[in-house]
Amino acid sequence: MTQTDPKDVVLIGGGHTHALVLHRWALHPAEGARLTVINPDPTAPYTGMLPGYIAGHYTRDALEIDLRHLAERAGARLILGRATGLDPVARRIEVAGHGAVAYDLASVDIGITSDLPGITGYREHAVSAKPLGGYANAWQSWLDRVAAGAVAPQVAIIGGGVAGVELALAMAYRLRGQAADITIVDAGTILPNIGAQARTRLIGHLDRAGVQRCENTQPRAITPEGIETDTGAMIRASFVLGAAGARPQGWLETTGLTLTNGFITVDPFLRSLSAPEIFAVGDCAHMAHAPRAKAGVYAVRQAPYLLGNLRAALNGDRMRAYQPQNDYLKLVSLGGKTALADKWSLPLEGAWLWWLKDRIDARFMGQFRA
Description:
This protein is an alpha/beta fold. The chain has two domains: 7-112 and 248-315, FAD/NAD(P)-binding domain (3-Layer(bba) Sandwich); 122-244, FAD/NAD(P)-binding domain, CATH 3.50.50. It has ten helices and 24 strands. The chain has helices at residues 16-27, 50-55, 60-63, 67-74, 122-125, 132-147, 162-174, 196-209, 296-315, 351-369; strands at residues 7-12, 33-39, 43-45, 64-66, 77-80, 83-87, 92-95, 99-102, 105-108, 127-128, 154-158, 181-185, 211-214, 219-223, 226-229, 234-236, 239-242, 259-260, 263-266, 278-280, 285-287, 330-334, 336-343, 346-350. The strands form seven sheets. The chain has a five-stranded parallel β-sheet with strand order 5-2-1-9-20, with helices on one face. A five-stranded parallel β-sheet has the order 10-17-11-12-13. A three-stranded antiparallel β-sheet has the order 6-7-8, with no helix packed on it. The protein is globular and about 65 Å long. The protein starts with 6 loop residues before the first strand and ends with a helix.
């Protein structure tokens, strides 16, 4: 490569951070760089609007970030394929159905999965909340079968964290008036990581929505009839959703990168500890300097740092360290067009919070459609 040859910057995955980088790259392209994006699909769903889609407040199109359009605006090449490997020594990325892609700098933003492969029958008879594209498709298909009378409106959700509860309330709202049977199954107690007052309010909403709770219960197997528990009891369900935990994509284990529990370990500049020409952001990254729970707010706020540090790496300039905030406003949809907010253990709720959340989501999505 001569000094005049462009350097290859490759974004692996179409997560929120990379979508924002594409948007800002289009406004201010980096000189001397050739940008490539690798993603299995031409669009990427926005997680913040998923509960609203499940409840019926948004269309599927409203959730989708158009990566093809973003890449075209940014002058980037879009490769439609799933990354399956990365060689930090040869600086090559393996892409299913495409072949290897070379890079000078790379960034990984591939999200997580909520698969539960340790449960017998899970892959055959359950759906994972993440990646959410598959869940959104399966939900609509199941609703069609319910409407046709092919299956009973029985739902079981594995995982009683905030995500599981929010999705349970969204599904209950969508199925209102259909004598639906919805159950949350958790190996411990539900909502362990939220303020006590907010937890009490959310449990009240579950009770009013008719959502049953099956706590301190371990699923042993998933069958076409539902969930068989460790006690031998059967929880009837024609739709089983996995919303417990956050697992990394398995192929990261083969890269030789430094990992923490399967997630790419990064420094304050969002670079891999073992390969500084590789960056990682969003849920697939572990911030060694400031560990945090997985949350979309961090992915959004990492975007200007990632873009700036990619530019700095290209130009040999000084990088900027990212320090995540200690707390953030958690807005939880309550099924209908109302929401609960929790910060500093001070909960608020009402229709105005749904309006606020809707405005935040609309503003986030609107920048990609400009």
